[in-house]
Amino acid sequence: MTKIEKIVLSYSGGLDTSIILKWLQETYGCEVVTFTADLGQGEELEPARAKAEMAGVKDIRIVDLREEFVSDFVFPMLRANALYEGQYLLGSSIARPLIAKHLVGIAREVGADAVAHGATGKGNDQIRFELAVNALDPSIKVIAPWRQWNIRSRMQLLEYAEKHHIPVPSDKRGEAPFSIDANLLHTSTEGKSLENPAEVAPDHVYQRTVDPLDAPDAPEIITIGFERGDPVSVNGKAMTPAALLTELNGLGGQHGVGRLDLVENRFIGMKSRGIYETPGGTILLAAHRGIESITLDRAAAHLKDEIMPRYAELIYNGFWFAPEREMLQALIDHSQAFVSGEVTLRLYKGSASVISRASPCSLYSADLVTFEESAIAFDHHDAEGFIRLNGLRLRSWAARNGR
Ligand code: ARG
Predict the structure, then answer these.
(1) Which pLDDT belongs to residue 216?
(2) Is 16 annotated as catalytic?
């Protein structure tokens, strides 16, 4: 084993990363610095400090990354209307490069030669962390304990904890918990009964949205303001990116918006079933498409839609810090120069529907489209020629086929 001098660990303070912390200290016999990111997961982070202190960690980093997460990762992704496999809003995928960026930053600052994470060997997250570290600083090694140690099951993990006097919360002793990943954009739940896609997910997996069946009978009307492709206000009130997403999560959650039960294809090769809750993100996707519908040229909009699946797959597969993602981002960002205005939506029993949109940069022309008499010169005979020429090859083809 190569000698490691100092490690920065991505540390949540939960059972898994507490065990990983102990294991790293024992296995490498070196200093471990812990890094805990506040991504709006809605958990108290001070207990993580206390636990790291108890484990003898001297350098404990707890950093509020909420604004950076939303403004530099979530919003750029939203400009593309990114969805993986047509449905997944990429809530976990987009958080990994940010965490990796800070792991690398701290490693450089404290002179660490390695970073470590608690992602398992079957998932996407290990790939995302490690590809990001590769792209940001190839000199930094990555330690993935789940791929290295002999612990192979939940039971063995608990035995290790017991042996090393790591406190195990009582609810973690019995049945294995769901695997949950939460941040300002979403909550993702996997594992246990969800591993059978033929089984209906139990109600208690949902954490931040009400069942649409129990949502208020009265719809709620909200207006979102956009500037150059990014949301900037809710109901006329200007907000920072993280505050805006927090506000929409609250509104969407109350109305049961943003639930998704999905079987997806992991990059590593297997299918997995998960439950996602993305209330604010679901509202923002609908709203962004709404404002784009009046401000983007047709060909520009269609080109965006063509590259979107590719862009989403890059993020899903962990290539955020890759040249091709940056190239696509430049194209997407360029398209957003006039994507400004206001979109009004109705939240009602699980749906977020655009009901009106307006923009000072609108390309929509009522005068052009109207069924009534129009002031703009539009010669109906032009349409006749347009159709005749477009139909030319179809007439040849049909005649040859003998129709
Ligand atoms: N399958 C999702 C993804 O790859 C979520 C992964 C993390 N979630 C979790 N519950 N462990 O982006």
Answers:
(1) 98
(2) yes
Q: Which domain CATH number covers 99?
A: 3.40.50.620
Q: How far is the CA of 206 from the centre of ligand 1 (A)?
A: 15
Q: Is residue 384 part of a domain?
A: yes
Q: Is residue 306 part of a domain?
A: no
Q: Are 153 and 227 members of one domain?
A: no
In tens, the pLDDT along 3-15 reads 999 999 999 999 9
CB neighbour list of residue 211: distance below 8 Å, 6 or more residues apart: 203, 256
Residue entry with tokens 């009978």: 217
CA–CA dist 30, 23 (Å, integer): 11
Q: What is the DSSP letter of 193?
A: G
pLDDT tens column, 156-171: 988 999 999 888 876 6
pLDDT tens-digit profile of 242-291? 999 999 999 999 999 999 999 999 999 999 999 999 999 999 999 999 99
Q: Are residues 132 and 246 in the same domain?
A: no
State yes or no: is 261 an active-site residue.
Answer: no
C-beta of 118 in contact with ligand 1 (< 6 A): no
Residue nearest to atom 2 of ligand 1 (CA): 92
Q: How far apart are CA 191 and CA 275, in angstroms?
A: 10
301: pLDDT strictly greater than 70: yes
Ligand 1 centroid to Cα of residue 165, in Å, is 29
Ligand 1: nearest atom to the Cα of 274: 1
Cβ–Cβ < 8 Å for 19, 157 = yes
pLDDT at 403 over 80: no
Separation of alpha carbons 307 and 80, rounded Å? 9
What is the per-residue pLDDT for 372?
86
Q: How remote is the CA of residue 291 from the centroid of ligand 1, in Å?
A: 30
Tell me the DSSP string of 54-118.
HTT-S-EEEEE-HHHHIIIIIHHHHHTT--BTTTB--TTTTHHHHHHHHHHHHHHHHT-SEEE--
Looking at the 3D structure of the chain, how many domains does it have?
A: 3
